[in-house]
Amino acid sequence: MSKAPAAYRESIAAMDPGQLESLYRTYNRRKYVHPDPLECVYGYASVPDREIAAFVAAALAYGNVGQILRSVYAALGIMGDSPRSYLVQQDVHGLYADYSGFVHRFAAGRHMAAMLAGIKGVIHEYGSLQDAFAQATSDADETYVPALSAFIEKLRSYAPADPGHLLASPDKGSACKRLFLFLRWIVRCDAVDPGGWDRMSAAKLVVPLDVHMYRACCGLGLTGRRRADLKTALEITAGFARLVPEDPVRYDFVLTRPGIRGPW
Question: Cβ distance 192 to 24 under 8 Å?
Fold first, then answer.
């Protein structure tokens, strides 16, 4: 992990709730977001547009961050000012034509078009992504893992072909970092996360576990597991829930910044 302020290093060593909260108050600001695909979502004031933009941005959030940003802006640029209007009006053949030249690492244009067709189908049936996700939730569930599995199954059912790794599923034991990142962005609302899904609870979110968060949480003593998989993500989430039960992913952004940005 790159060099970081003393307060950051001390909180990692001791997991002091007060110091973690101090980190949050100091660094949970938009000026520290870049470079991050989340910045691509801020321009969408309408929640129906924002949820689609956030899903696309999160789906492409792997690899070199510079390439991620280029790919996200390219993918969203094809949709114009309103991703929802674009998907409602464009037919599936048009999606494949529009994204025929799109490439992001392992994702080709056909994968992106298939995923967008899935989103289009869900919106047609339920009205919005939030409405579809809400129907999959249960008060009995401690986290949104079951709802996310059902939600991804709905998206895949409307895709005319396999979207590949763009639509991962918790059913396979993966940490599903990109999907939980999407949920963090669209459910939480603070200086960094724009929110929009006002029917969901931040208390049921799961930590988006990437290598930066995994290393930080090993340092915090939140996990001793050697694999950054779904079980590890849930273990870490449970640890943070003991500190902030209403918002267990509260410190995700500030704990991953040094690994992504370098020195503050």
Answer: no
